[in-house]
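Fill-in record for Putative 3-methyladenine DNA glycosylase.
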Amino acid sequence: MRVCTISTISDFPDFLDAHVEQVAQRLLGCLMVRSYEDGSQSIVRIVETEAYDQEDPASHAFHGMSARNRTLFGPSGRLYVYFTYGMHYCCNVSCDREGYGAGVLIRAAEPVEGINILQAHRKGKHSDTNLTNGPAKLCQAIAVDSKLDGHDLRQAPLRLVYGRLHSQERIEATPRIGISKAKDTLRRFIIAGNPYIS
């Protein structure tokens, strides 16, 4: 697990109004800072994303806006949270222009701070590489559920903080995981070789 000092890195990303595939790549390396009611916090670094928009048959926005997916059509920088398989939450960052349904699924992240908190939320002594290496694992570890749907990621209790790739890191595009439509489209983006991807 890398050590990361965020006291000098506090800017909200300025690229979220761009096309979803650009946003999905630029989110790699950014941080999610989660604060809790007891004053503690955990920090994770995004290492895997997937792009979805309203022209994509695999997207929740494909059939237009509904009560469930309205966050995807709102302003960029909001958290879209959905419940899947009757047991798991997953989260997306809304992007592109307001009124256009688009979001980036955060598939995996690297623990940076508060690993004991992440482990407690995951209900076990998982290794750090197995704590947040999947969208449902990530949401459980940082305590994201439907109450955070629509949350502005500029604000606590969950903030999105600008970050960048390390000098030796590179982005790789692959097919997305766990979908039945448009499954060969290269809209999954990873930090190649990162041990924390799903």
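KEY FINDING: The radius of gyration is 15 Å.
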